[in-house]
Amino acid sequence: MSSLTVPVAVSARGRGAVRLAAAALVSGLVAAGVLAAAQPAAADEAPERGQGGAVATMGGMETYGTAVIHGEGGDQEVPAGLFEMSVEGGGTLRTYCVDLYHPTQREAKYRETSWSGTSLGANKNAGKIRWILQNSYPQVNDLAELARRAGIGAGLTEQDAAAGTQVAIWRWSDGADVVALDPQAERLADHLEKSARSLAEPNASLTLDPPAVSGRPGGLLGPVTVHTNARSVTLTPPADSVASGVRVVGKDGKPVTTARDGSRLFFEVPEDTAPGSAELTVQASTTVPVGRVFAAESRSQTQILAGSSESTVSATASATWADRGAIPALSARENCAEGGVDLTAANTGDRPFTFELMGVEHTIPAGTTRTVTVPLQEDQAYDFTITGPDGFAKRFSGVLDCRTQGDTTADERTQLMTEPSPATVGGTPADVNLASTGSTDITPLIGGTAIALVLIGGAVLILLRGRQQGTGD
Q1: Could you say which of 87, 135, 307, 448 is the most buried, measured as most Cβ atoms within 10 Å of its Cβ?
Q2: Are 109 and 297 in contact (CB under 8 A)?
Q3: How far apart are CA 382 and CA 297, in angstroms?
Q4: Is 239 helix (H, G, I), strand (E, B) or coil?
């Protein structure tokens, strides 16, 4: 079939109310002067998500069955199972959805991220989802053994296993009142839901910490520490390193071209180098840990990793230098616990670094690091640029996606859309369309004035958390 009628908002399992309909949400954003489009805004750096790991593009549903969502407005059938994504640079990911009530967009770009930047960050049951992933299909691909564990008779198919696993995940990720249509898939879902135990969040496949450093020329800027599950990573030096003389070295000051987990890297900047900046890229081939979250750059369903081939992962870190004045280093990450974006500003210079954000001026004293939390509304697109001395500028943009439908108090009703979610299933390849809310042709209207309109009254809630900056040896 080429079209399904699916819920955008339904009653959550064990909860009485749900989010307002998608149409109401979009109209509210329009009234505020911001349009959250299906396509991501251009960005120099995506908060946290751009700091490292795998980047992948949504393909389609690979193995699936059917689930039924029980809601106040009636029951709705939806496809339930495994998605497949292709990794930039090579590799394939298999994922389940942890964001039932949002649509999935074909060709949406996803980035590996931490739980804290998604709805799982505030979900006390997130660890149980990882347990399900570790103890079900496709990690357990012996279907006879999986059926035995669940007390199911013979005949459990891959489709049943995928559907049952997805249903169990939705019960913990979205609090959904959802069942698998196939009896064996439903028995597997019940077994997984009841047996789940909390496991810790897995480490990232590759990150650099911190993602930005600063200092004066004539010394080593850093350290930047490599965190990875790969055996080794390959370093790509700054693009103009030959002309500028800027090199990437180890703590002994010797140039390095490869590193491993725990390696500490430094930018060596010659003493007479003019104020400027440089970027280091590291890359590796590894399997991404099961349970890592993949968040879309657009409003597409959040995914959680169920399996990975050998895949390309990468991360970047930047360095900024000057011989005097303020010398800033900026990074950002989405913080769902605080409902906003954490902007971390380090100033290794000898003068304060002052910048304006959302109409509020902030000053980072010399030699300190502070974090400014920018409060945002759920589903709000944001785009801001921080400028500094010597032409310094860094831009951050994205969409805050921290809640599932069941997290929000709203009208207790079901809104239907004819676009498929989580995916259209069946039909020819031309018929397969991984959902769109109809906003694919809308460009985000993001600017200082629009953001100010959305955030009016909220800017005063911006928090400054100060701490003395530590220096590496």
Answers
A1: 87
A2: yes
A3: 12
A4: coil
Residue pair 86/59 in contact by the 8 Å Cβ criterion: yes
Q: Is 123 exposed, middle or buried (CB count within 10 Å of its CB: 0-12, 13-18, 19+)?
A: buried
Distance CA 169, CA 422 (A): 14
Nearest in space to 67 (alpha carbons), one of 162, 193, 174:
162
Task: Please list, in sequence order, all residues whose beta carbon lies within 8 angstroms of the beta carbon of residue 96, skipping any fewer than 6 positions away.
Answer: 81, 82, 83, 133, 165, 166, 169, 303, 304, 306
pLDDT digit string, tens, across residues 316-365: 999 999 999 999 999 888 888 888 888 999 999 999 999 888 788 889 99
Tokens of 79: 């496809």
The two tokens of residue 399 are 């969409």
| Sign, Cα dihedral of 21, 23, 26, 30 | negative
- Written as six digits, the tokens of 94 are 């298999």
Q: What is the pTM of this model?
A: 0.74
Does residue 401 contact residue 119 with C-beta atoms inside 8 Å?
yes
Distance CA 186, CA 167 (A): 8
Q: Where are the beta strands (DSSP E) in 72-148?
A: 74-87, 92-97, 109-113
Burial tier of 308 (Cβ tally within 10 Å: 0-12, 13-18, 19+): buried
Q: Which of 61, 71, 251, 260 is nearest to 162 (CA)?
A: 61
Q: Which residues contact 472 (CB under 8 A, 6 or more apart)?
A: 222, 223, 264
Q: How many CA atoms lie within 13 A of 262 on its CB side?
A: 1
CA distance 23 to 29: 10
Query: How far separated are the first and last CA of the chain, in Å rounded?
Result: 62
Element (H, E) at 133: helix 126-134
Residues 363-397: tens digit of each pLDDT: 999 999 999 888 888 777 788 888 888 888 888 87
User: For residues 20 and 410, what is the distance between their CA atoms, to the nearest angstrom?
Assistant: 5
Q: Is there a contact between 344 and 353 (Cβ–Cβ < 8 Å)?
A: no
CA 145/CA 138 separation, integer angstroms: 12
Instruction: Give per-residue pLDDT as tens, 199-229.
Output: 999 999 999 999 999 999 998 999 999 999 9
DSSP 223: E
Q: Quick one: pLDDT at residue 51?
A: 66
Q: Which residues contact 465 (CB under 8 A, 6 or more apart)?
A: 370, 371, 373
Structural element, H or E, at residue 22: helix 22-32
